[in-house]
Amino acid sequence: MAIRYQVMRFPNGKGKAVTFSYDDGQRTDLRLADTLTRYGLKGTFNLNGGEGEFGKHITPDEVKEHMLEKGHEIAVHGACHRAPGRHRPVQGIKDILDCRLHLEETYDTIIRGMAYPDSGIRRIAGFTSYETIKDYLTDLDIAYSRSLGEDNDLFELPSDWHNWIPTAHHSNPEIFNYIEKFLKANVFEGYVSRRDSLLFYVWGHAFEFDRNDNWDLLDKICEKISGHDEIWYATNIEIYDYVTAYNSLRYSADASRIYNPTLYTIWFEVNKKIYSIKPGETLKIPME
């Protein structure tokens, strides 16, 4: 039986994806959302929702108009902005569940994503552990959660969706070098086992642009990374759902037949040839 490599590709066979993630739901998020929309980019806005003091800066109508109706995602950021690593599990569960319930009721939608508030899981007190936090996030139907603090230029998809490490904060002095490296990378050439699809993930707080008086930085980032035909511009949950669907494909023992049980058309590469498989379809791949 021939040995071959199969590599996931993003929708329409693209080899790269870009996403943005911004926290806290300040009024500056509206300007950021409008900027992403203008450049054809997509972002995830992590909102606080509940009885806490956070999450009262923008109105539901504004969120709908500037974010949801423009194809952006909203996600959980805690009712009271509690770092789950610094609190007992019952407190972390309540903060996340209250936020999710409030946002889903307010926006009449299902919310499955999250970004850790405050220090998140970077600092773990004796009350809990990362394994405990991951377990209760899974029980709360939180599909992924963005962490932070380890900026890098690997452009990898997460191996652990509840510890999703972004590429860079927008203020990282290396961000334009990272973008240049990302844009120059050719995932369709080179050694076959190293042609994985790439993800560039920018995160931050929109109010930082106000505080530092550097909204032009956002425009420069967006202008540099937008408008490339080989890139899929997506929200966090769109990336999670697509990758999860790809990983749900079913194979015959010799991998010559592939069945797609999902609702997504999935794209992948085998031996430098791009294939797509529709929902419910079984595809036979020539053995070489």
Mean pLDDT: 94
Contiguous uncertain segments of 5+ residues: none
Order of helices and strands: EEHEHEHHEHEHHEHEEEEE
Number of strands: 12
* Rg for CA atoms: 20 Å
Q: Distance N terminus to C terminus?
A: 8 Å
Spatial shape: globular
As a percent range, the share of helical residues equals: 25-40%
Q: Major sheet: size, sense and barrel closure?
A: 6 strands, parallel
Structural class: alpha/beta
SS element count, helices? 8
Beta-strand content estimate = 15-25%
Structural commentary:
The chain contains 8 helices and 12 strands. It is of the alpha/beta class and 288 residues long. Strand 5, helix 5 and strand 6 form a beta-alpha-beta unit. The mean pLDDT is 94.
Summarize the topology.
Elements: E1 6-9, E2 16-23, H1 28-38, E3 43-47, H2 60-66, E4 73-76, H3 89-107, H4 130-139, E5 168-169, H5 175-184, E6 198-204, H6 207-211, H7 215-225, E7 231-233, H8 236-246, E8 250-251, E9 257-259, E10 266-270, E11 273-277, E12 282-284
Parallel strand pairs: 2-3, 2-6, 2-7, 3-4, 5-6
Antiparallel strand pairs: 1-10, 8-9, 9-12, 10-11
Feature tags:
single chain, 288 residues, alpha/beta, six-stranded parallel beta sheet, three-stranded antiparallel beta sheet, 8 helices, 12 strands, globular
